[in-house]
Amino acid sequence: MRYPLATLFAALISASLAHAATPGQTACSQIQGSLGQGKVANPNLLNFQYQQSKNGYWNTRLNANNPACAVYPSSASDVSTSLKAIKAAGSRFAIKAGGHNPNANFSSTNNGVLLDMSKMTDKSYDPAKGTCTYQPGNKFGDLYEFYEQFGVTITGARLSGVGSGLGLGGGLSYLSGEYGLSVDGFQSLEVVLPSGEIVTASKTSYPDLFFAMRGGGGNAYGVVTSYTVTARKVGKFHSGLLVYALNETNRVLEAVHDFTRYNTNPKANLIATWEKIPLPDLNINLDEIFILFAVYDGEDPGNSYKNFTDIPHILDTRQVRSYVSTTRDLATPFATDISKGSNTFRVSVHAIDDDTYKQAYDQWRAWAQRPEIKSKYMLTSLDFQPVLRSLTDASKSQGGNAMDMPDGPWFWLNYLLTTPPTLSASDYNEIQESFKEMVNVVPAAKNLPLFINDAAYDQNPLPTFSTYQRLKSIKAKYDPDGFFSSKTGGWAFP
Ligand SMILES: Cc1cc2nc3c(=O)[nH]c(=O)nc-3n(C[C@H](O)[C@H](O)[C@H](O)COP(=O)(O)OP(=O)(O)OC[C@H]3O[C@@H](n4cnc5c(N)ncnc54)[C@H](O)[C@@H]3O)c2cc1C
Ligand SMILES: *[C@@H]1O[C@H](CO)[C@@H](O)[C@H](O)[C@H]1NC(C)=O
Ligand SMILES: *[C@@H]1O[C@H](CO)[C@@H](O)[C@H](O)[C@H]1NC(C)=O
Ligand SMILES: *[C@@H]1O[C@H](CO)[C@@H](O)[C@H](O)[C@H]1NC(C)=O
After folding, report:
1. By its UniProt entry, which PANTHER family does this protein fall under (predicted)?
2. Which of 240, 311, 335, 460 counts the most CB atoms within 10 A of its CB?
């Protein structure tokens, strides 16, 4: 009798252990109890909402995670309730806006609570104050379309599909030459602190928090539930692509350098991207293409792009169009969806007065040509993003940001690597390691900040900011128990 009873007990205990709720599950049922069923989606193959939240990442490798549930807050108070439950349960979590950050754990979580902001899509314009207020569930394209009717817009993504999280990492826009980064236009933010407290951060209210949130990174100091930013007058643009063949590389690269150094017209902006797909080498080199996104705020760009149009090109799609069209149609509509895949970014920063920008291009190209590398990628690109003098001047004149950007001009370089979904784990690790080494061959400039929005998880940009110590103490003040530091991804203060 004794022996079977003990066995029965053991069986009962292990059965109850198997069903013991994980911290994520505990938090989820607590949140569901408080917010109601309609705001929580549970793991279930047939739950479309859950599947959409779990699978919507631009880096599709992140879709492998299974959050304990997805929560759809509709207010700061919902976020506050959720954070308190997550903290009490000791669960991990992630804050997801547009889901474009490619780094693991930044806006994705396995077994934790996924705070999906997509239902918070309010937006409004205050003509008297000259401000736009929007919630984090909006994509930039939605905002540009909405604000166009008022003749205004905001400094945000160059591609319409990118989410609002872009702003928290700085936010480089086609309007940045005139108005600085997205963060430079921040007027006030509604923030749910790690404690659950709801505050307004501005130059006069919680100014230290406001300083840190102007480019110190998302998911570090709290959850933003509303952005109020400066409205910018908007009219017609002259914008489009200039496309070049491989044999013009050197001249185009030189023109990008000259533009970055000499352009004094803040209305003229560009991003230059070198793209490579791994076709076999042919004499005509169809596998490599240079695309210049030339965007001028106004109908007549004058001589701003003459150095580029003077170089023989394959295609020139520049024409007069709206800002909405500029951010939607230059590449291809839905570009952010089409480009979903096994994607990783890396970032670098280079000064204007040396030739490291050219060395960086040479390293990247030689690497992408290597047969053992070519067999492991689908696409790799190198983007030159000029940080013009007018950009850093505009930033300073609005109070500066968390990077306290040194005077331009200089370059942010963004490297993209897309690998085939079928690549084996060892091949994947190998090419990622090699990608990292390649980018490191030409060291980043020592006194310039790395760009948060383009950085890989192992490239913590914060220590490259002159404001690092200040940010570190603000982080310690607003996340005193290390709740966000230990339970969600993002940049750490080592
Ligand atoms: C196709 C493409 C185009 C891009 N174009 C540009 C560009 O033009 N300019 C530029 O600067 N960058 C650009 N980026 C980089 C982009 O800024 C980052 O990928 C950014 O992370 C995107 O924000 P998201 O809301 O889509 O992503 P998410 O991954 O959802 O969010 C990014 C980060 O912010 C956090 N976060 C998001 N919302 C909140 C919130 N409300 N409160 C607190 N934390 C939050 C997340 O946890 C995450 O760590 C581009 C990226 C891609 C893939
Ligand atoms: C993501 O978080 C999980 C859980 O803490 C951890 O095991 C994993 O190593 C993290 N991934 C990265 C790339 O940091
Ligand atoms: C590149 O090739 C095109 C087409 O063959 C030609 O017109 C152009 O002059 C070439 N440029 C250089 C720098 O050789
Ligand atoms: C074009 O390049 C030349 C140097 O070759 C430079 O002097 C000039 O300022 C550049 N023009 C513009 C508009 O950037």
Report:
1. BINDING OXIDOREDUCTASE, PUTATIVE (AFU_ORTHOLOGUE AFUA_1G17690)-RELATED (PTHR42973), FAD-BINDING PCMH-TYPE DOMAIN-CONTAINING PROTEIN-RELATED (PTHR42973:SF22)
2. 240
**Nearest-ligand number for the alpha carbon of 215:** 1
Structure token digits, residue 167: 């702003």
Domain 23-116 has CATH 3.30.43.10: yes
pLDDT of residue 10: 52
**370 is written with which tokens?**
């290597």
pLDDT for position 1: 45
CA-nearest residue for atom 3, ligand 4, is: 258
Token couple for 21:
């709720």
Smallest-distance ligand from the CA of 180: 1
- Residue 165 CB less than 6 A away from ligand 1: yes
Measured CA to CA in angstroms, residue 103 lies from 176, 220, 257, 490 at distances of 25, 15, 30, 8
Residue 331 has what pLDDT?
80
User: Coil, helix or strand for 172?
Assistant: coil
Residue 20's CB: how many other CB atoms inside 10 A? 9
Which-ligand-closest: CA of 485? 2
Peptide bond preceding 312 in cis form (omega within 30 of 0): no
Assign domain 123-233+467-479 to its CATH architecture: 2-Layer Sandwich (3.30)
Ligand 1 test: best mutation among 166, 189, 221, 345, most atoms within 8 Å of CB?
166
Q: How many residues does the chain have?
A: 494
Minimum-distance ligand 4 atom for the alpha carbon of 258: 2
Which ligand is closest in space to the CA of residue 301?
A: 4
Helices marked H in 263-355: 306-309, 323-329, 335-338
- Please give the sequence-ordered ranges of beta strands (E in DSSP) within 51-112, or none if there are none: 69-71, 93-96
Ligand 1, residue 169: give the atom nearest the CA: 17
Question: Is residue 309 predicted with pLDDT exceeding 90?
Answer: yes
307 lines ligand 4 (CB under 6 A): yes
Considering the four listed CATH numbers 3.90.226.10, 3.10.580.10, 3.40.462.20, 2.20.25.10, the one that applies to the domain covering 236-463 is: 3.40.462.20
What number is the average pLDDT over the span 353-357? 95
Phi, psi (deg, nearest 5) at residue 70: -110, 135
Asked if 402 and 208 touch (Cβ cutoff 8 Å), the reply is no
Cα of 218 vs centre of ligand 1, distance in Å, is: 8
Determine the distance separating the centroid of ligand 4 and the alpha carbon of 451, expressed in angstroms.
26
Q: Name the CA radius of gyration of the chain, rounded.
A: 24
Q: Where in the chain is the domain with CATH 3.30.465.10?
A: 123-233+467-479
pTM of this prediction? 0.94
Residue-wise over 61-87: b if at least 16 C-beta within 10 A, else e? bbeebebbbbbbbbbbebbbbbbbbbb
pLDDT at 486 over 80: yes
Ligand 2 atom 13 nearest Cα: 104
d(Cα 47, Cα 332) in Å, to the nearest integer?
31
